[in-house]
Design a protein that fits this description.
alpha/beta, about 40% helix, LUD domain-containing protein, LUD_dom
């Protein structure tokens, strides 16, 4: 297996949260926490490519880390949404060190005034050269679905950033758009709520914004790349 930096957020993996959070525990062995077959990964790849996404299929976390690292040119400005998948492959740890990129996420977090930080998220945060994120679901017929509470993530993915790199474990693959919403609202949201309870001390998260990318815009071909990992990652 290819090497990758350490995940420094081990208490926020799905397995860890399912053990520590009583509300999430009933979903601990849910099929959405498990990787689908290689055949379904290939079906999703074919569907995404038909929809205009550029797709990279990799075997494991180490290959995912190296693939994403090699997709971003030196000097590029980079921001990332919160992503347990990016944490699990060690990419968030890597970004905290010295890189060849302009780490906009670090600039945003360095601003301690809440109002000023929110303005940075709205402006430089969503208009970077490369925006990195994971999603809640990838369909076999070539759609990508995700959501957030604030809007900063869906905004950057839909339009703001020059390039978007999405990482998705094989546990994110579903049949179609209908099932994508089921996975997002009945599984991923509950896991994110467990993380939010631990990280922020709030009762739950909320699916305020929900976005489905049915195809890549004809005005920006090649803008969105998807890294499919043949392992379970995130939630």
């Amino acid at each position: 297996m290819s090497a990758h930096p350490e995940n420094t957020h081990v208490t926020h993996t799905f397995a860890a949260l399912a053990k520590s959070d009583a509300q999430l525990a009933p979903l601990a062995d849910h099929h959405y926490s498990k990787a689908v077959s290689a055949e379904r990964v290939e079906a999703a790849k074919a569907g995404l490519e038909k929809s205009g996404f550029k797709v990279h299929v990799v075997e494991n976390r180490g290959e995912a880390f190296n693939t994403i690292k090699n997709l971003i040119p030196a000097g590029a400005s980079v921001n990332n949404a919160h992503s347990t998948s990016l944490e699990e492959i060690g990419f968030v740890t890597y970004l905290k060190g010295e890189t060849a990129w302009n780490n906009v996420h670090a600039t945003i977090l360095g601003e301690k005034d809440p109002a000023k930080q929110a303005e940075l998220r709205r402006t430089i945060g969503t208009t970077v050269d490369y925006y990195l994120t994971s999603v809640a679901a990838v369909t076999e017929d070539g759609k990508v679905a995700h959501g957030d509470l604030s809007g900063s993530k869906v905004g950057g993915v839909a339009f703001g950033a020059n390039n978007v790199i999405i990482i998705a474990g094989a546990n994110k693959i579903v049949k179609d758009e209908k099932e994508a919403f089921i996975r997002t609202s009945e599984f991923a949201l509950h896991a994110e709520s467990a993380r939010a309870r631990d990280a922020y001390g709030v009762p739950a998260s909320a699916l305020v914004n929900y976005e489905v990318l049915r195809q890549v815009s004809p005005f920006t071909p090649g803008r969105i790349q998807v890294v499919l990992v043949k392992e379970a990652l995130g939630f």
